[in-house]
Write a structure and sequence with these properties.
This protein has helices spanning about 1-10, 15-25, 45-50, 65-80, 85-95, 95-105, 110-115, 120-140, 170-175, 180-185, and strands spanning about 160, 165, 195, 200. By secondary structure, it is mainly α. The strands form two sheets. A two-stranded antiparallel ribbon has the order 1-4. Strands 2-3 form a two-stranded antiparallel sheet.
């Protein structure tokens, strides 16, 4: 629900949330062999280009809010480039250059034609159908026998901006909450001390 709301606020289709489902299964610590990390599986360069800070102490690719806003900005750019959501999703997977080259080689600006002509990487050719399948299943859960699942409740939290580096144990103690709970709310913080300027979820 948090990601859907953020996508809606950015004027994007809420169904793009299924991209994160396919990319990471909504796991903040997901990572790929290509060094992509977080919910939306940003590689380092793309993450930085869209404002996600990364250091030995912090990786905002793992932050649910910041990474979703970065993914929304990236999707806006991809849609502006290609004018089609299927091509934008394909470009999210293999890069806009790869999709553009496939279009230039064939003259087709249509994902399904590019897939038929076998000019996209195999992973990308299967990636868009997987997202569309997840979307169909998600919107028709009853038809697939998934309507009686016990869903986790969305996390409720406030966000505070840290002005100085602060030890997480000190914050947990001040809140009288377990340190593990604070760490779970803040998967982007990689060490015991949160850097200055961190948007801390409490």
């Amino acid at each position: 629900p948090l990601m859907r709301q953020l996508l809606k606020q950015q004027g994007l289709p809420q169904d793009l949330v299924y991209v994160a489902m396919v990319e990471s299964a909504f796991k903040s610590r997901a990572h790929s062999r290509k060094a992509a990390h977080g919910f939306w599986q940003f590689i380092e360069d793309t993450g930085r280009r869209y404002g996600l800070r990364q250091s030995r102490d912090l990786d905002e690719r793992r932050d649910p809010v910041k990474s979703t806003l970065a993914a929304a900005a990236y999707f806006k750019d991809l849609y502006e480039m290609f004018g089609d959501w299927n091509l934008a999703m394909a470009a999210y997977n293999c890069g806009p250059g790869c999709v553009d080259r496939a279009i230039q080689r064939t003259g087709f600006a249509d994902f399904w034609q590019l897939r038929r002509l076998n000019v996209l990487p195999k992973e990308t050719a299967n990636y868009v159908p997987a997202i569309l399948a997840m979307t169909i299943i998600g919107k028709n859960a009853k038809d697939y026998g998934l309507d009686d699942l016990e869903l986790e409740q969305p996390l409720a939290y406030d966000t505070i901006e840290l002005e100085t580096p602060t030890h997480l144990a000190l914050i947990a103690d001040a809140m009288d909450r377990p340190l593990a709970e604070l760490k779970e709310l803040n998967p982007a913080i990689l060490r015991s001390v949160a850097p200055a300027g961190t948007a801390l979820h409490v």
